Target: 40S ribosomal protein S8
Amino acid sequence: MGISRDNWHKRRKTGGKRKPYHKKRKYELGRPAANTKIGPRRIHTVRVRGGNKKYRALRLDVGNFSWGSECCTRKTRIIDVVYNASNNELVRTKTLVKNCIVLIDSTPYRQWYESHYALPLGRKKGAKLTPEEEKERENQQSSRGAVPAGQASCIPSQSWNQKLWNSMRLIPSMMTAILYMCSLTIPLVGNTFCQMPTLLTPFRSLSVQ
Model:
């Protein structure tokens, strides 16, 4: 039997029966949701119409996220699911679906920021750089020169911003471009899996109830 998404096996609106004039089709079945969890990468392939393949993500632990205001895209680790507007059960079970709010590791973005602007970011107050880091910073400053005024959208000198980056965690606005199949909540992984064209917000600046 199985779950089918066709309508020819149902009665007509007038109450009359329909004669089945063909057998069941593979494209009419109802596939179960993947319910993607946070864990080591596990992706299953699904054979679809035309011999093509879709890739169903059962577990994911990394994603490709964009820092929109800085045009910086990095592959980073997904730490946790902190909010879901549709269902709190998806937060408790840490299920990755479209529009869920996730917690990611900020280390790749901090490293890019320090290398691009030659300015320390996310350092504790009074913490001194190692000789290697200090030498690298001087080389970057000498090669790049002074940062133009207004070029850095995040001002590292502000104490509140330093505290936020010290947590090493960021909250993107939402997971927006996870692919789906069969009109069900089945996240897939393609060339743009988990891509985030939205602005990254530091972790403590968003309070999730």
